[in-house]
């Protein structure tokens, strides 16, 4: 369907200019900025208000979910697309001084738009200009600014070394600012854990506008920003990451099986095998609704695999442990690790590496995501009941991501991310649509809740755990007449389990006045 984008933009611009004109908070804020930033780095060309013609393209450029780019979506009074650390400091100090909320945005992938939408007057502190990546192969580390994307990071690592990589997400446009601070997982998690398990240092601007590193912020704060969500504690400027070893050749595959081809039996078996395979193997199972050759609806499961080694060894391992999948030599592609990052982003084998540097220009899809953790294999009957729900929704896919391996060796309290040993896999539910309008949106939100409800018997309980990077505003929302803190306890326990209390303690020390906040931030005591 062709989207009448122009129509959206017109309404959009009218509603913004009305909001922006003669807003005293905004004017004071704008006057404050140059006073608080270093004159050597003029802040003027980092500031976008509705008067600037590129305001809308800058706003849209880092929105991924069209649910949050509609005419009724609240817009920021200004975007400060910082170019220097002193601009970050100025934005924090001036926003605080003049009563504006800030939303911090790096890659803009937040599923619920929390990095660029607020319901009180606000400005966006946008990090996309701060994207330097300094790789040091000698000590196998890198400093990565928050506005750099995962794709840029993979590209730069490969530019310096063919035998190093980094465990992070499959999507190439994720901002490292948000992605790492929420945990960050990808297809090397069974070997190396999460992104946050491989971070050595960070630079953060705190609520007083002071730049802290690991030493000056202290171990508790450094713990909190590695999985607790950066936006509750300060502005992440950059991360120091530990590069990991990868072989010169890795093997990938994507084998698809429909219900008619035995997908139910194979995915049933997958639950027992995938979390126990050697750590070098990661096999994601991705069920989605497809039309079969007769034109009838079916469920097709893609088994997408990554092996840190060559295909011969993989084939014999698979023949031994998972013959049901029927993996063959012709399904396997050997390539460098960086080429596998392109494969995982769903580009055809052989796509030039330059795509790693692409940045999307505007959102293309509406979506709603939820997540779950599974501790016991689901029965075949259970799996069949899940297929029935999916077939009723149609515009939906699931990702089943196997845990085990390194993930089970790291304790629940090592980082705020608590979903470690005892989980056999995590589920991501992704409903998507392109039709505009509140009715369609409400329909799919409703369907997502029904799917979630239908999954209850198969997933973790008390708490029903969820992954913070898969932000879901349904969690903990509108529960009776509870206080803000009680609400936070609900999503906090789901995202962080027992680590929530420590996150609250760190928050209370770092930001007692709760300047850094959003709908699902960590509250101070
Ligand atoms: C298409 C797609 C694919 C994805 N794939 C994966 C995946 O493979 N693995 C995975 O783990 N996750 C994945 N995610 C989820 C993703 O990790 C989170 O949405 C993450 O928060 C994105 O970070 P961002 O900087 O792009 O987003 P943003 O929307 O910019 O930020 C997300 C959150 O972090 C805060 N934040 C951002 N930058 C900073 C900063 N510099 N300092 C402090 N706080 C900050 C924001 O305020 C917001 O609360 C995917 C998301 C999408 C849309
Ligand atoms: C936005 O417009 C103002 C006023 O004309 C100007 O000072 C500023 O540099 C513009 N911002 C950008 C990013 O060009
Ligand atoms: C890389 O790390 C080594 C070892 O710590 C150090 O001696 C060197 O100065 C670093 N190089 C750069 C460019 O920072
Ligand atoms: C690394 O990047 C530089 C600068 O773009 C380029 O000249 C060089 O060829 C690249 N090296 C490799 C090994 O890709
Ligand atoms: C299946 O085919 C029907 C009819 O052609 C189409 O409307 C529907 O969108 C298709 N569904 C999927 C999941 O491809
Ligand atoms: C496809 O659907 C038609 C009509 O419902 C049915 O008669 C036929 O058996 C189905 N084919 C398959 C392979 O399921
Ligand atoms: C798989 O294992 C069986 C016996 O366990 C053996 O006969 C067969 O040759 C193996 N196939 C491959 C491709 O290794
Ligand atoms: C909600 O709580 C407040 C404060 O405790 C109380 O005054 C109010 O009556 C409650 N409202 C409802 C609907 O229970």
UniProtKB/TrEMBL annotation:
Keywords: Disulfide bond, FAD, Flavoprotein, Glycoprotein, Signal. Pfam families: BBE (PF08031), FAD_binding_4 (PF01565). The keyword Signal applies. This is FAD-binding PCMH-type domain-containing protein. Residues 1-21 form the signal peptide. Residues 72-246 form the FAD-binding PCMH-type domain. Belongs to the oxygen-dependent FAD-linked oxidoreductase family. PROSITE patterns: FAD_PCMH (PS51387). GO terms for molecular function: FAD binding; oxidoreductase activity. It comes from Prunus dulcis. SUPFAM superfamilies: FAD-binding/transporter-associated domain-like. Its cofactor is FAD. InterPro entries: BBE (IPR012951), FAD-bd_PCMH (IPR016166), FAD-bd_PCMH-like_sf (IPR036318), FAD-bd_PCMH_sub1 (IPR016167), FAD-bd_PCMH_sub2 (IPR016169), Oxid_FAD_bind_N (IPR006094). One of its GO terms (biological process) is cannabinoid biosynthetic process.
């Amino acid at each position: 369907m062709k989207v009448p984008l122009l129509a959206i933009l017109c309404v959009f611009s009218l509603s913004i200019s009305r909001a922006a004109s003669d807003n005293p908070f905004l004017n004071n804020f704008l006057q404050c900025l140059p006073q608080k930033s270093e004159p050597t780095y003029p802040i003027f060309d980092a500031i976008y208000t509705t008067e600037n013609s590129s305001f809308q393209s800058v706003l849209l450029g880092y929105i991924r979910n069209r649910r949050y780019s509609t005419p009724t979506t609240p817009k920021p009074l200004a975007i400060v697309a910082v170019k220097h650390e002193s601009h970050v400091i100025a934005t924090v100090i001036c926003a605080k001084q003049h009563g504006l909320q800030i939303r911090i945005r790096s890659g803009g992938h937040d599923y619920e738009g929390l990095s660029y939408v607020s319901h009180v007057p606000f400005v966006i502190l946008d990090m996309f200009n701060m994207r330097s990546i300094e790789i040091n192969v000698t000590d196998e580390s890198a400093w990565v600014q928050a506005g750099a994307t995962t794709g840029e990071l993979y590209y730069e690592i490969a530019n310096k070394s063919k035998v190093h990589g980094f465990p992070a997400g499959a999507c190439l446009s994720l901002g490292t600012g948000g992605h790492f601070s929420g945990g960050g997982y990808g297809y090397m998690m069974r070997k190396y854990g999460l992104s946050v398990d491989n971070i050595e240092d960070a630079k953060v601007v705190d609520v007083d506008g002071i730049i802290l590193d690991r030493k000056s912020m202290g171990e508790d704060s450094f713990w909190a920003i590695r999985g607790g969500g950066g936006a509750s504690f300060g502005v992440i400027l950059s991360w120091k990451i530990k590069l990991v070893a990868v072989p010169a050749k890795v093997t990938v595959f994507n084998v698809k099986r429909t219900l008619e081809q035995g997908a139910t039996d194979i995915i049933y078996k997958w639950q027992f095998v995938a979390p126990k395979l050697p750590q070098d193997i990661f096999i994601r199972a991705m069920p989605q609704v497809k039309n079969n050759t007769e034109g009838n609806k079916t469920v097709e499961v893609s088994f997408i695999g990554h092996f840190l080694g060559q295909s011969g060894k993989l084939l014999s391992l698979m023949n031994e442990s998972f013959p049901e999948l029927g993996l063959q030599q012709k399904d396997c592609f050997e390539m460098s690790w960086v080429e596998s990052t392109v494969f995982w982003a769903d580009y055809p084998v052989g796509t030039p590496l330059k795509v790693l540097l692409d940045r999307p220009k505007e959102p293309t899809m509406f979506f709603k995501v939820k997540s779950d953790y599974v501790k016991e294999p689901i029965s075949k009957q259970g799996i069949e009941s899940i297929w029935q729900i999916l077939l009723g929704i149609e515009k939906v896919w699931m990702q089943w991501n196997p845990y085990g391996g390194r993930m089970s060796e790291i304790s629940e309290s090592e980082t705020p991310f608590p979903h470690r040993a005892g989980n056999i896999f995590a589920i991501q539910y992704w409903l998507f649509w392109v039709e505009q309008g509140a009715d369609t949106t409400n329909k799919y939100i409703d369907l997502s809740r029904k799917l979630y409800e239908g999954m209850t018997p198969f997933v973790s309980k008390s708490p029903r755990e969820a992954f913070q990077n898969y932000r879901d505003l349904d969690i903990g929302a509108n529960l009776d007449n509870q206080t803000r803190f009680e609400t936070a306890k609900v999503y906090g326990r789901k995202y962080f389990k027992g680590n929530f209390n420590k996150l609250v303690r760190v928050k209370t020390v770092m930001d007692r006045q709760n300047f850094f906040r959003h709908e699902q931030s960590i509250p101070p005591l």
